[in-house]
Structure formats: structure tokens, C-alpha cells
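Researcher: Next entry in the queue.
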Amino acid sequence: MSTFPRRPRVLLLTGGPLDGADGAGVRLASDVLGVLTDVEFTWFTRWPHRRGRPPPHPYGGHAVPMPSRDGGPRTPERVQSVLGGAVYARRCDLVHAFLTIGRAFPAFSWLRPLLLGARPVVHTLPGVTEPALLPRTRPLGTTVALSESMARRLRAADFGDVRVIPPMLPLEHWPSRPRPRGLPVVLYAGRHDPAGGAETAIDAAAEAVRAGAEFRLVLAMRGRPGQDLHSREEALRERAGAAGLRDVEVRGYVPDMPELIASAHVLLFPPTAIGGRSDIPLIVLEALATGRPVILSDLPQFADFGNAVLRAPAGDARRTGQQLLWLLDQPRSWDVLAERGRTAVEERFGPERFAARYAALYRELLA
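Model: Structure for this entry, 367 residues:
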């Protein structure tokens, strides 16, 4: 039975096509599209389609073709999103935007009444590239933060109506897996960003090895448009070698992330700043759901995980390495953290809770 008096029409406004390059905003929009099946959505789909790959969710609604060379959220895609949003917003009851606050966002926010009209707007905020942009930005409507930490920052910047709805993880795709046997694998998964934490992960691993730990370090790295990935991967290998690490693998894009996480014993994710990435990184949720303990940097956004994770001061490779050494040497503590992590994802990041909160917000704004 529908949770709405009638089937509402909602525009999903993203910086690129939903079936294009993966990113926090696209992932969140795709999740909303997947769980709210009694809403008639309009979304952007890549054109021409990749061979054999249909639009992300065949739940009806309207898929608007967006010409795109590779599906990435580059300037042409963002311009098409703004112009297409201005057209289709007027055909919908509500606009749901999934846009990071970057350098061009303040100008867009001031033009919001002209571009999106009088329709109510929900803005799910994946991240903020620079905190200095917040005072120059007007809220698009009701803002949804992924963490309590981000919600406090937005309220302090006079964003008005700010809600907190954490992201979801489809638990059926991420079953809890037993601890792998053999030589432990320590995994870092992230992007080639200056504050992304890959260098800290290498230095922390070296600290643990010098203290007697034995494991293999795997760095699963994703690039951004315009980056020379080969030279960046080589730089990480050189840093690992200079730090005395011998068993290190640097990988690029991983098509089967569930298997990679299942093969690991620990996820090491120590960024010194979040930047424009999601406040609640999906890689952390995926590792916790799989039953893999996680060591994070002690950033405010990560406080929402509570005692389900270990945290070390941001940029403190020595302390991070000590925690890694302790965790690998304490099987019972490993088991406790693995169970806590899975429970935390089930209780706070499940699809049912995610769907109920967004459905309630839609009903409130459409009333």
C-alpha cells in the first residue's frame, strides 16, 4: 500500500547521470530511487548507454537522456543538470538534489528561485569541499546532512531547516563474512587526494611492522578526472618501500569490492580531512557490514560510529600503527569489533530506516 495520498512526482537532481561515474551523490540518489518505489521519479541517464547496461532502477518514472562521454560529473554534465533541472522541476511536485557544495555551488544556490521555481526542495548534502563556502551559500530548501557533525556546521552557517538521515547500505549485498585465514591483509581504499589518508596508512603500517606485526598492505586507489594515476601509484609504492614495507600492493579501480573487503582483516581509513567526500564513507559501512574492524582518524564526522570502530588522532601515523598492531594481536578484540560493526550497520544504516525517514520528509513537504 502506498505511503502517499497519490503518487508524487519527484526530480532527482544530480551533477551527472545516475548510471554514470560512481560517487556519493549518485549513490545516494540511486538508493532513494530504489527504496521509494511508490514515487514517480525523474532522473538523468547517460546517453548513449553503455552496452548492456540499462538505467539504474526500472521502477517507472522518467529517465532523461544526458549526453556524456564517460558519465563523469564534469562541467558539461553539471551544466546539463542545471538546465535540465530548470525544465523538469516545473513538471514535478518536489525536487530532491544530491549536490556537493563546491566552488560553483554558492552561485547556483542564489539562482535557485529562478532555476527551480517555487517547488519544495530537499538537498541531501554528500559533502563540502571547503568550509569557507558555507557562509556564501543559501540553502536550497530543507537540507539533509549525513552526520550530526555536518548538521551542526550547517546550522551554525544559518542553513535553517537541517535534518540528519545517514546513508543506507543494502545488507543483502553485504553479508557478514568469517575472518579469512592465512597472512592478515590490511586494506586502505580511497582516492588520490592530498588529505585522503593513503600516506598516513602507509606510515602507520610501517610503524606496526617495525613493532613486529606481519601482514600484507593493499591500497585500492581511485582517481579523479585529470589525474596521472600511474605516477601517483608509483609514488605510493616508493613511499612504502622507503618506509621499509615489502609486502604492498597498489591497485586501481576494483570491480569486485565485496570480495576485496572479505579478503581483508582490517580496514585502515585515516584521512586528515573529508573534503568533498561523504561524511559517512560507504567503504566504512561496507567493511563494518562484512564484519571487518575499522581504524579511522578521529574526525568529528566519525563520532557517529561510536565504539563500533577504533579511532586515532588525524595524521598520527604512530598512534594509528599502534592500534593496528594491537588489533592484529588480539583475536578476541577483533571478534568484538567485528560484531559491533555489523550490529551498528544493521541498526543505523539499514534500508528500512533510510526509506522511512525520506518518505516521512517527502510527505511533510508535499503536504
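Model: The first helix runs from residue 24 to 35.
Researcher: Noted, moving on.
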